[in-house]
């Protein structure tokens, strides 16, 4: 690297913070669920899927 040359690495790049969003939903009869995975329909919050 030549003197005065800047190397760009992931360590010195500023990263924009994602917007803080909270989405809450109720799972009915949660304690009675016996399958390890459940999937929901796709939904959009704040422009994200």
From TrEMBL:
Q: Where is the signal peptide?
A: none
Which ranges does the record mark as transmembrane? none
Which domain of life, per UniProt? Eukaryota
Q: Which residues form the MATH domain?
A: 20-49
Name the InterPro entries for this protein.
Answer: MATH/TRAF_dom, TRAF-like
Q: What is this protein called?
A: MATH domain-containing protein
Organism, per UniProt?
Nymphaea colorata
């Amino acid at each position: 690297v030549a003197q005065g040359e800047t190397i760009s690495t992931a360590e010195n790049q500023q990263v924009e913070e994602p917007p803080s969003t909270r989405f809450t939903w109720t799972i009915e009869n949660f304690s009675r669920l016996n399958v390890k995975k459940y999937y929901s329909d796709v939904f959009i919050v704040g422009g994200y899927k």
